[in-house]
Design a protein that fits this description.
With about 280 residues, the chain is of the alpha/beta class. Helix content is about 25%, strand content about 35%. The strands form 3 sheets. The chain has a 6-stranded mixed sheet. The protein has a 5-stranded mixed sheet with strand order 12-11-10-13-14, sandwiched between helices. The chain is globular and about 50 Å long.
């Protein structure tokens, strides 16, 4: 994805204490959008790939540089929501969940590194909790900069927003969303407004994506023609993957901004930032 930095004509840097900041970080990039909470509209959006010369720096050093050098991350905001993009997570049904047992739940399926700490999100649209890890240094840097910051996993936003979409549109049929994140992709299946599947899969090549996507549907006995399929994230209409998926599954749509917050950046493909644009809806 290309680097971008766009600001609406109404953006006023003096008004950041009345703005919302939605920030997402992966090991390869960071992105954020700024929302004018009074006018209920997006007034800025930025995506920045970590520079090649930073390849030898640790993840924490990259984030430290980001916070120091990005002028708009040195401002105070009314609300700050942070999404950590990672394939390391586990889902626990609410009936079995005990926050004192986070490590036990997490390490049953996923390795917890010595310098990672655990966070969890209660999925308000699903009867489950999502547990995920964040490097401790990253948490410290962000909390020191934004003391009231809320931590989310990308799955929390994806699940909340796809179920909300089904509920608000009263869609009882099968909804499928693939969210491409670079080295992996998220796959969600919602039927009758309920979460059936959320998982991540390796995405090292186009053939990987096609195999894992179609195999997951096959395991669930879902035929593509009987579902509404949406793509979000790092996929372009001109790409070979887009063309090949059209051949394999037929029709699908690109899902963008689901909120009522105004988005006036015509040169931006909303689906590429769908999860970020919808992050502030999560509560």
């Amino acid at each position: 994805m290309k680097n971008i930095a766009l600001f609406n004509e109404t953006f006023n840097i003096s008004n950041t204490p009345t703005y919302y900041l939605a920030l997402q970080i992966s090991s390869d990039f960071y992105s954020y959008c700024i929302i004018d909470s009074i006018r209920d509209r997006f007034v800025a959006i930025k995506h920045q790939n970590f520079l090649d010369e930073m390849i030898d720096k640790s993840f924490a050093e990259k984030i430290s540089d980001m916070l120091k050098n990005d002028a708009f991350l040195n401002k105070n905001y009314k609300k700050v929501d942070f999404c950590f993009i990672s394939s390391k997570f586990t889902l626990i049904p609410t009936a079995l969940f005990n926050k004192e047992r986070l490590k036990e739940y997490f390490t049953f399926n996923v390795e917890l590194n010595p310098f990672e700490e655990l966070h969890f999100n209660k999925l308000t649209r699903s009867d489950a909790n999502l547990i995920f890890s964040v490097p401790s240094e990253i948490t410290t840097l962000l909390v020191n900069r934004f003391p009231e910051i809320k931590f989310y996993h990308q799955g929390t936003s994806l699940i909340f927003n796809l179920i909300s979409f089904a509920t608000e549109k009263n869609i009882q049929s099968c909804l499928i969303q693939a969210n491409l994140q670079g080295s992996f992709f998220d796959l969600l299946v919602v039927i009758g407004g309920k979460l059936i599947l959320y998982n991540t899969f390796t995405n090292s090549s186009e053939s990987d994506f096609i195999y894992f996507f179609l195999n997951a549907l096959s395991q669930l006995n879902i035929k593509p023609e009987n579902a509404d399929i949406f793509f979000t994230g790092d996929i372009e209409k001109k790409s070979d993957l887009y063309k090949h998926m059209t051949q394999f599954i037929g029709s699908f749509r690109l899902l963008g901004n689901l909120s009522k917050t105004g988005f006036a950046f015509p040169d931006i493909s909303e689906h590429e930032f769908s999860n970020l644009l919808n992050l502030s809806r999560c509560e």
